Amino acid sequence: MLQVRCTKKMQDALGLRQTDLSGIKEPDSILGNWYANLFTVDRRKTLIFMNERTLLSFIVYGMRKDNITDFKEYFHRGLRQLLMIENIGNEKIEEILAQYETIEFTRADSRTVLGNLNDLVNIYKYSIQYDGGLKECDLTSIICQMNRTPQRNLGWSYSVEILAELLKMNRH
Description:
By secondary structure, the chain is of the alpha/beta class. It has a single domain (2-169), classed as Nucleotidyltransferase, domain 5. Helix content is 41%, strand content 19%. A five-stranded mixed β-sheet has the order 4-3-2-1-5, sandwiched between helices. Strand 2 and strand 3 (44-51) form a beta hairpin.
């Protein structure tokens, strides 16, 4: 099961009230739970997803009120693309995605992780604008670069290194 830790802005965009939010639970999947936020870049609403264990992140842009309810589909598609970019095998990708078939929304509960998420939002915005905006930039390259940035909360390791360690520990 996937628990998405939503910022207040994300909760509002999804139309979630406090009573709609689930209680926070320990993750039961290889990668654990994810944080989600909504921000604007190049006049487009953009979703950012960040894994709470690895700080691995990806973004999906072009959100509108009428399509943001396809949240699970955007998450699955974005995560699949990210894992393919990182050369994770199809079998492992399917195993990971199968663990996220059901979805619950919770409030964001860690200030430390929220700090990382906000830093990533700012860096994504800057990188996209620096490379000419969403129409001109190589978004795949930017996402790869973000996941290869040393993270203090990971002991200055890269998110992709922690991902590789998690997947290595969970081999069948």
